[in-house]
């Protein structure tokens, strides 16, 4: 697995003295989808802006496929496509002209066939002769993506790509991201939507108050940190919770029939079988069992709350 983006000791203190990023290290592997998850003001846009050369870092450096983002700016930047969080597209130009021009900015020769493909992929082809300012918000966002792809970047940054977009566009975006990944593009996206990270990402980084709290393979994250909730409905009512179940951390619902147990599969040996054996040992009959694995959302909320 080779590294395409390497971030070392990067920090940012804005002019007013506010530290938006504490020294941070992160390597991104070629071809992966990395989701940066964090609440408002966590530092996501600041981080992306530094990598893309829009904001100066206070300390540290970024290497993009071997090119330093400052001393090798042009080469580093040419590898990168950025879809910014804020749309800046009040243009009188047409969609076609805007996207073609964007490619030219990176010194790439015209490639109408490629621009056509990008516009078709983003369902913008029938709008190609429309002026940008006549488009809807969602279409403008698609244009921003088309612009970012016009120079065939190897790394694509999507800063909140699906904030405020409808379900259709979100699905389109996800499909597009998968196609790009299949074509070998590395994708780094920021999002508030945990389900988006859960659905899309190979790895997830959680950032909060300018600190990278955690970076982990999504699957491992779900496996290691995911808690399980078991609800066992008993065939008959219980007056009180038997001691051995109470010791296990099981709770009895007000109805006297629902036993709820939350545990971490990674830490508890023989979780479910152990619980069922305890229930059987008490001579209780089980009517129903329901299990639920905690989602990434629970993990995220715990992490962010824990840091406060
Ligand atoms: N130009 C600036 N000058 C001073 N402070 C700034 C500047 N830009 C951002 N900040 C502060 O840095 C912190 C991080 O902002 P940033 O935009 O990186 O957060 P974010 O994680 O992208 O948030 P959001 O989810 O709302 O987009 C915030 O507290 C913000 O107010
Ligand atoms: Mg942001």
From TrEMBL:
Alphabetical UniProt keywords: ATP-binding, Nucleotide-binding, Transport
Residues covered by the ABC transporter domain: 5-234
Xref: Pfam families: ABC_tran
Annotated InterPro entries: AAA+_ATPase, ABC_transporter-like_ATP-bd, ABC_transporter-like_CS, ABC_transporter_ATP-binding, P-loop_NTPase
Top-level taxonomic group: Bacteria
Claim: Transport is one of the keywords in the record: yes
Record-level Gene Ontology MF annotations: ATP binding; ATP hydrolysis activity
Family classification: Belongs to the ABC transporter superfamily.
Name of the molecule in the record: ABC-2 type transport system ATP-binding protein
Phylogenetic placement of the source organism: Bacteria, Pseudomonadati, Pseudomonadota, Alphaproteobacteria, Hyphomicrobiales
